[in-house]
C-alpha cells in the first residue's frame, strides 16, 4: 500500500500568514515537492487557522495553484478550540491552541493510516524535500528527521532572497539544497552563535551544538531533532508545552532504526525563519559541567544521546575530508564527554520522571 501523506500547517495571525503566502506555500508548490509527490501517491494539504484567516487564504493564488495537484482543506479550527474569539498568535495561549489543533489532526491521520508531514508556516524547504520524504516513507521508515534544519534571521534572509527571486507573487519558489544551505549559512541567526563552544556566553539549552568549519560550513550535533514526517499508526496526542521531539520518540518510536536521520544538507536542507530580535537563554559560565550535566540528565533519553553521536553536515561547498575531520573529532569527543555525565540517579533525585529505556 502506498503511504498517505497528510501535510499540515497550523498558523494564524498576519505575520504567519504573510510567511505562508510568500515563502512556505510557494516552496511546497515547487515542482519536486507537491506536484511530483502527488503523482507518487495520495497527498492532502491541511491548513488549520481561524475562520477569518481561512477566508483570506481561500483567495490566495498559491492555494489555487496547490489545488491543481492535491486536495487542500482550510479549516477554522483555531476558533473552535479557543476560549477567546481573537487568539493572539504571539501569546502563550498559542502553544495550547497549537497542541489542541495538532491533536485533532493527528487523530485524523490515525483514522486514515496516514503520515503526518509538518510544513511550518515560518520555514522554507528546498525543492525536492517532499518527494524525498515520500521515498523514505516507501522504504519502511516510521519517522524522518532532518539534521540540517537551521535557524536564520528572517529579515536579513528574506531581503536577500527577495533580491534574487520574486517572492509573494503566487508563483512556486524552488531553491535547491545547496543554494538554500549557502544562503542560510550566510544568515545564520546570531542567537544560535551561543550554541557554539567559543562564543562568550553559552546557551543554557545545548540541545543543538554547532562546530564551525571555516570557509566550508557547520558541523552540527543534535540531541533533540523534531521529525518532519511521522507515520501515525497508533493513537497519540501531544501535551501542551511538550515538544514534538519528545512526543514522537516516546510515544511512537520503539527503535532508533525506525527513524531515517538525514545528516547532509545536500540531501535535505530546511530553514526556520526567526525574527532578528529572537533570543535564547544564555549563561556566562560557558559550557560548564553544571550546565551540560543538568541538560543531559533532565532533558535527554537514550535515543537523544545516540542521536547526538551522528554528524550532520551543513555546507556550501563540497565536503573535503581533511578540512572536516579535525572538527568531527572535536565534536565527537565533546558529545561523548556530555553523554558521560548521564547519571540515572540524577533524574530521580531531582524529582524528574525517568525517561524510558528504548530498544536499540
Structural account:
By secondary structure, the protein is α/β, with parallel strands linked by helices. It has one domain (5-349). It has helices spanning 14-28, 34-40, 51-57, 61-66, 77-81, 93-111, 129-138, 154-164, 177-186, 244-251, 289-299, 302-307, 321-339, 344-349; strands at 5-10, 43-48, 71-75, 115-118, 123-125, 143-146, 149-153, 202-203, 208-213, 217-222, 227-231, 259-262, 270-274, 282-283, 312-315. A 7-stranded mixed sheet has the order 3-2-1-4-11-6-12, sandwiched between helices. A 3-stranded mixed sheet has the order 5-13-7. A hairpin with a 3-residue loop joins strand 9 (208-213) and strand 10 (217-222). The longest helix has 19 residues, at 93-111. The radius of gyration is 20 Å and the shape is globular. Mean pLDDT is 89; it is low at 348-360.
Sum up the structure in keywords.
19% strand; 360 residues; alpha/beta; seven-stranded mixed beta sheet; 14 helices; three-stranded mixed beta sheet
Quick description:
The protein has 360 residues and is an alpha/beta fold. The chain has one domain.
Largest sheet: 7 strands, mixed
Helix content: 25-40%
Strand content: 15-25%
Write down the Rg: 20 Å
- The number of helical elements comes to 14
The largest sheet has its strands arranged as 3-2-1-4-11-6-12
Q: What order do the SSEs take from the amino end to the carboxyl end, as H and E?
A: EHHEHHEHHEEHEEHHEEEEHEEEHHEHH
Compute the average pLDDT: 89
Number of strands: 15
Structural class: alpha/beta
- The overall number of domains is 1
Amino acid at each position: 500500500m502506498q503511504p498517505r501523506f497528510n501535510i499540515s500547517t497550523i498558523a494564524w495571525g498576519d505575520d504567519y500568514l504573510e510567511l505562508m503566502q510568500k515563502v512556505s506555500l510557494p516552496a511546497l508548490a515547487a515542482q519536486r515537492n507537491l506536484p511530483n509527490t502527488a503523482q507518487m501517491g495520495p497527498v492532502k494539504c491541511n491548513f488549520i487557522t481561524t475562520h477569518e484567516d481561512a477566508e483570506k487564504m481561500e483567495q490566495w493564488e498559491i492555494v489555487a495553484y496547490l489545488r491543481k495537484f492535491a486536495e487542500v482543506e482550510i479549516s477554522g479550527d483555531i476558533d473552535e478550540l479557543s476560549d477567546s474569539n481573537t487568539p493572539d498568535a504571539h501569546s502563550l495561549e498559542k502553544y495550547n491552541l497549537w497542541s489542541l489543533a495538532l491533536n485533532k489532526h493527528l487523530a485524523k491521520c490515525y483514522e486514515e493510516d496516514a503520515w503526518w508531514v509538518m510544513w511550518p508556516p515560518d520555514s522554507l524547504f528546498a525543492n525536492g524535500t517532499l518527494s524525498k520524504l515520500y521515498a523514505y516513507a516507501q522504504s519502511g521508515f516510521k519517522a524522518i528527521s532532518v539534521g540540517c534544519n537551521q535557524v536564520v534571521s528572517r529579515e536579513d534572509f528574506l531581503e536577500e532572497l527577495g533580491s534574487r527571486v520574486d517572492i509573494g507573487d503566487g508563483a512556486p519558489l524552488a531553491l535547491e539544497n545547496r543554494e538554500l544551505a549557502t544562503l542560510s549559512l550566510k544568515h545564520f541567526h546570531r542567537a544560535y552563535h551561543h550554541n557554539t563552544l567559543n562564543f562568550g556566553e553559552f546557551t543554557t539549552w545545548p540541545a543543538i551544538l554547532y562546530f564551525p568549519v571555516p570557509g566550508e560550513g557547520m558541523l552540527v550535533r543534535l540531541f533533540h531533532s523534531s521529525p518532519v514526517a511521522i507515520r501515525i499508526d497508533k493513537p497519540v496526542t501531544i501535551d501542551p508545552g511538550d515538544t514534538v521531539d519528545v512526543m514522537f520518540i516516546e510515544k511512537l518510536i520503539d527503535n532508533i532504526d525506525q527513524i531515517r536521520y538525514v545528516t547532509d544538507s545536500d540531501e535535505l536542507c530546511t530553514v526556520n525563519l526567526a525574527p532578528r530580535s529572537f533570543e535564547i537563554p544564555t549563561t556566562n559560565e560557558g559550557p560548564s559541567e553544571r550546565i551540560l550535566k543538568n541538560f543531559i540528565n533532565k532533558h535527554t533519553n537514550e535515543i537523544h544521546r545516540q542521536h547526538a553521536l551522528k554528524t550532520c553536515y551543513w555546507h556550501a561547498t563540497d565536503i573535503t575530508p581533511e578540512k572536516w575531520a579535525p572538527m568531527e573529532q572535536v565534536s565527537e569527543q565533546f558529545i561523548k564527554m556530555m553523554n558521560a555525565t548521564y547519571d540515572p540517579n540524577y533524574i530521580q533525585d531531582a524529582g524528574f520522571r525517568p525517561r524510558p529505556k528504548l530498544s536499540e
